[in-house]
Amino acid sequence: MFILSWELTVVSMFTVPIFAFISKFVGARRRAASARTQRAAAEVSAITQETLSISGMMLSKLFGQQQREIQRFHEENQQLADLTLQRQMTGRAFFTSVQIFFSLTPILIYLIAGYLLSGNSPSGLSTGTIIAFTTLQARLFFPIGSLLQVSVELQGSLALFERIFGYLDIKPEIVDADDPVTLSPEEVAGKIKLEDVRLQYGLSAEEHLNGVSANGTGRLALDGVNLEIAPGQLAAFVGPSGAGKTTISYLIPRLYDVTEGAVKIDGVDVRDIRLASLARLIGYVSQESYLFHATLRENLMYGDPDATEEQMQAAAKAAFIHDRIMEFSDGYDTIVGERGYRLSGGERQRLSIARVILHDPRILILDEATSALDSASERYVQAALEPLMKDRTTIAIAHRLSTILSADVIFAVDGGRIVERGTHEELLVNGGLYANLYHEQFDSGRVECHCLDGIVLVNGRLVAPMPRVGV
């Protein structure tokens, strides 16, 4: 084009840098609009998942909030539609103006070429040259327009990529050590030891050593916890809500890492054990068992994907759930529904116990495993737990003290500390936190004060002290 006519080339190309600069500005707006659209889409997805879940639908019906939830979804969905339209429209005016300019440029070229051909300015132009020039110009402007459009669209896509890479770039806090130890269940006795354990949520051990405070208050969830559980013992943790009982249990499978101190299994720091190996050693039964929207078989086999059909059914029988499963027309191939809604609370818990039996861990953690069940379901679950607890180190977290009276050792937790430890009889004699909790449940009253004659409850009743062990 420069060879044909440098004058026409300058006229043709002088607006390209301007449009390139404008496309960068429009692209930034498209990127911001795409980011807002992604956030709105995530909010709509969250509302849909919450309100259309079994628990969400029951809650909205029980409180008569169906219309409110419908209105909330409508508002969020309308906002998403508006943002999507805004994102689509961002840059349309720019693209239109670019296309109009590129379409009108040949007219401008013909006008200038006519002026040059009129003889008012020296030029070597001819009619054939002008036709050749406009042909080349059209072939050049088409890819330039496409590149400008791609540039703007790419900026919009980058907002989505940022959101994706934002998740991919999150580094897990709990990872294997550089040279992890692999422990097999056969070689693990099950001794658990916590050495001067301190934990502050959101604060890593490295940050703690550097004097960083996670929340500025310095309050620890666990503060100087020392305990030891012998292999095969049943250890119970009791205390008020928020005392740190469940937090202690989370440290053993490394759901959290300690801020200071160490948690050891058979003398090996859990941070030095390979995560897959550690998971193989530990079985966990929580208050609310989670079941996948899958078959009973798939939920059971989650404990050991390599188990045989006979092993799976043996685990179900040990958990007293096999007969109930066989009452379904599809047996073990029955879909349990979202979070196992087709089963009762006790049945879900027994299925969870069967899954742990199939897992065959060396260490068992029971976190309020029967607290939400009625008496009949609790008896079934307790019967299912007995063979599971045999010859295993078991940690039981309980508010219902009747379930842990026979524990080998009971730890009373309060304020992130172990304030008492001993057997049921020993702790009753001590007259501390455990005795207070015990009399609340079994003597129908809260402890008001301690005296030489015994314990005085708020209802005025005097409970005589138990004789001290060995006296």
TrEMBL record:
Keywords: ATP-binding, Cell membrane, Membrane, Nucleotide-binding, Transmembrane, Transmembrane helix, Transport
Pfam families: ABC_membrane, ABC_tran
SMART domains: AAA
GO cellular component, one term: plasma membrane
Segments crossing the lipid bilayer: 6-26, 93-117
SUPFAM superfamilies in the record: ABC transporter transmembrane region, P-loop containing nucleoside triphosphate hydrolases
Superkingdom classification of source: Eukaryota
Classification via Gene3D superfamilies: ABC transporter type 1, transmembrane domain, P-loop containing nucleotide triphosphate hydrolases
Residue ranges constituting the ABC transmembrane type-1 domain according to the UniProt record: 1-156
Membrane topology: Multi-pass membrane protein
Subcellular localization: Cell membrane
Residue ranges of every copy of the ABC transporter domain listed in the record: 192-440
Primary site of residence: membrane
Example GO biological process: oligopeptide export from mitochondrion
GO molecular function: ABC-type oligopeptide transporter activity; ATP binding; ATP hydrolysis activity
Name assigned to this protein: ATP-dependent lipid A-core flippase
Lineage, broadest ranks: Eukaryota, Metazoa, Porifera, Demospongiae, Heteroscleromorpha
